[in-house]
Structure formats: C-alpha cells, structure tokens
Amino acid sequence: MKTIYMDNAATSFPKAEGVGEAMADYINKGAFNVGRGGYEAAYLLSETVVETREMLLELFDAPYNTSLIFTQGATASINQFLKGLLCPGDHVITTSVEHNAVMRPLRYLESKGTEVTVVPCDGEGKLDTEDLEKAIKKNTKAVITTHASNVSGTLLPIGEIGEICRSRGIFYGVDAAQSAGVYPISMKEMKLDFVAFPGHKGLLGPQGIGGFAVRDELAEKLIPIFQGGTGSVSDSELQPEFLPDKFESGTLPLPGIMGLHKALLHLKKEGLEAKRHKEEALTTRFLAGLHNIPGIRVAGICDPQRIQERASVVSLDFLNYDNAFAAFDLEQDYGILTRVGLHCAPEAHRTLGTFPRGTVRFSFGPETTFEEIDFALRAIKNIAGR
Ligand code: PMP
C-alpha cells in the first residue's frame, strides 16, 4: 500500500529538492566551523551562512535595522522573545488559539509574576482585533500571536495587530511556525518586531534549524537566554552586545543551515505565490468534498469559498466514531498519515469546541496531489460511516 503523507503541519515531507544532498555534502566533504577556523574553507562556509540570513530577511521583507538569528526552531525563538523581554509586573497579551510553544513559556512567566491576558478567538478561531485592543493596559509590553493556527488553519490578522501595537509602543512577536515559506510576511508593512520560524515546515528544510528575525530596537532590549562562546571578542568573558552574536552562543547548527540554504534557493525558484496557490487549491477541494460527508465536523472555517482566511491545515471531528480510531484506520486501511489529538494546543481546542476529544488533522504540502485529496475524501467517507 502506498503511503500518503498528510501531516505537513508537524513537519514537511518531502523536503525541498537537494536539501538532503546539501547536508550530506557538508558533513562528508568539509564539516568545518564558522567564526572559529582561520582558513579558506571556513570563510567560504560563512558566506553561505550570511547568504542564508539574507534570504530569510528578504523573505520576511525585513526593514533595514533587522537581524536574523539562528536557533533550533520556533519554540527556541519564542522562548527567547518572551523570556528575554518580560519581567515580573509586565503585561503580555496573546490569543486562545496558541500552540504550547507560546503558552508554556507564558504560563512559566506568569508563575514568576508576569501578567498574561489570553484574548478569546471565536468558534472558527478568528480574532477580533478590537478585543485585543481592549486588553491593552498601561504595563502591556508585548503581544504575541500565531499567524496560522496549527489546529484549524485559521489565519490571524497580523497586519492589523502590528498596526495597533506599533501605534501603542508595544512589541509584537509573531509565531510563523505554520506560515513561514507559504504566506507572505512583511515585517515592514505589517509592522512586526519579531518573527519566529522553524526551518522544517513550510520552508521545506530540515529539523533542528529555525530562527527569528528581530528589529534591532527590540533586540537591544532582549536579554539572551544563553551566554557562551561566539568566536568573537574572545578576550572578554562578557557576552557581546552586537548582533547576531548576542543570541548565538555555541557552534551553529551548520548541517541544518546548509539544508535550509538549499530549501530557500528552491523556494526562490518555485515562488511563494505558486506554492501557496497550490496548497489553497488542494485545501479548497478537500473542504468542498467534506461538505458532502455526513458524520464529520470541520473544526474552524469549513466554507471552501473562504480559503483566503485559512491555511492548509484541516482538523476533523468524527461525530460517531472515536477520532483516534479514525486516524488509526486511515493509516492501516488507506496508508494515510495524519495527526490525532490536541496538537499541543489545548486552549485552541476549547475555542473550537473539540476539547478534550481532539481532532484528526490533515495538512497538505506542495507535493500533495489532487488524487490524494480525492482518495482521502473517500477514506473519510467510509470511516465516518462505520
Ligand atoms: N507554533 C506552532 C503554531 C506550531 O505549529 C509549532 C510546531 N508544531 C510550533 C510553534 C513549534 O515549532 P518547533 O517544533 O519547530 O519549535
């Protein structure tokens, strides 16, 4: 039986063409270090690292004074933003559809005295920015929201939120885990101060590499979570204040950067628009097909006409059958790989009305085919009737 991968929201597969080879070449043909080795091959490698930073800043349409910092992924980046900025007595606002990559650091900070407000989204996962605006207080220092829900795919109006935050002098951080590499993100136009991204989802790069783009005005205020060797100012025992070194202690995850570099070149060639349109077309077909299947409910926006409001992540609740059994049957009987459960976002499920049952999540990538969508629809229909 053929395997059909529909779990791209967890991590994309297949990766972009050439990613594996680029990583293997680095390991096999010269796994040198950057900023530490004074020889030609190491300098050449630093050029690829710089080029990768530049391509990412371009992807996020970053304003002039913005830096690109590499981390292990979105979780590490979000932790740096929140823990590096918020002190006891500060107030931070978020939404009710966040991933635990946001909620867990926030709950930790709350236990240390930071005030946290969670603005509720509606039953489709949509946010009314007026509610967010009303939650702003004198001590509000930051707002953090996801761009696209990893449960329902619902897109949040990050441009509107950015506008509100900038006009109030509040730092705004976006969790672009489900949107980077698929949706246009303009730090300039949307007035974003911080964008956290993983390399391994929409960018089609490897796991273990990601990062954040940060406006220097915010970077100056952030305290680095880690201190350590940077290969620079080695005569000092103090962490450098300049960027990116301030936030990049220790050896960089170079195999990951080589893979991500290749993935970004691939994205440039293919074009973000084309990739998004393909995913939108797949999701539209899937939603349209689901309309005719009794015994299931889409968590969030189900109208295929409203594709502009959602990403290619679709969560289903099987009304007459256990969702965990449904996911099991999808794999055993049809070879379809999905993710079942609460997807590290319990409050999002409460918002969407699927807590504690959870959902079966289907998420498509640029290599998903229309035939696979139709096959999945037939499988869902059969399982929903069990
Ligand atoms: N935020 C969202 C919305 C996500 O979907 C994920 C990944 N599941 C993360 C953050 C965390 O990303 P990573 O595991 O790459 O750190």
What is the gist of this entry?
Helix content is 39%, strand content 16%.
Descriptive notes:
- The chain is an alpha/beta fold and 386 residues long.
- Helices cover 39% and strands 16% of the residues.
- The protein has helices at 19-30, 40-59, 74-85, 100-111, 129-134, 158-168, 187-190, 216-219, 254-270, 272-290, 323-334, 346-352, 370-384; strands at 4-5, 66-71, 91-95, 115-119, 140-146, 171-175, 194-198, 210-215, 296-298, 313-318, 336-337, 339-341, 359-363.
- The strands form 3 sheets. A 7-stranded mixed beta sheet has the order 2-8-7-6-5-3-4, with helices on both faces. A 4-stranded antiparallel beta sheet has the order 9-10-13-12.
- Helix 4 links the parallel strand 3 (91-95) and strand 4.
- The two termini are 21 Å apart.
- 4'-deoxy-4'-aminopyridoxal-5'-phosphate (PMP) binds at residues 73-75, 99, 101, 146, 150, 175, 177-178, 198, 210, 344.
Annotate the secondary structure layout.
Blueprint: E1 4-5, H1 19-30, H2 40-59, E2 66-71, H3 74-85, E3 91-95, H4 100-111, E4 115-119, H5 129-134, E5 140-146, H6 158-168, E6 171-175, H7 187-190, E7 194-198, E8 210-215, H8 216-219, H9 254-270, H10 272-290, E9 296-298, E10 313-318, H11 323-334, E11 336-337, E12 339-341, H12 346-352, E13 359-363, H13 370-384
Parallel strand pairs: 1-11, 3-4, 3-5, 5-6, 6-7
Antiparallel strand pairs: 2-8, 7-8, 9-10, 10-13, 12-13
Helix pairs in contact: 1-9, 2-9, 3-4, 10-13, 11-13
This protein binds 4'-deoxy-4'-aminopyridoxal-5'-phosphate.
4'-deoxy-4'-aminopyridoxal-5'-phosphate binds next to helix 3.
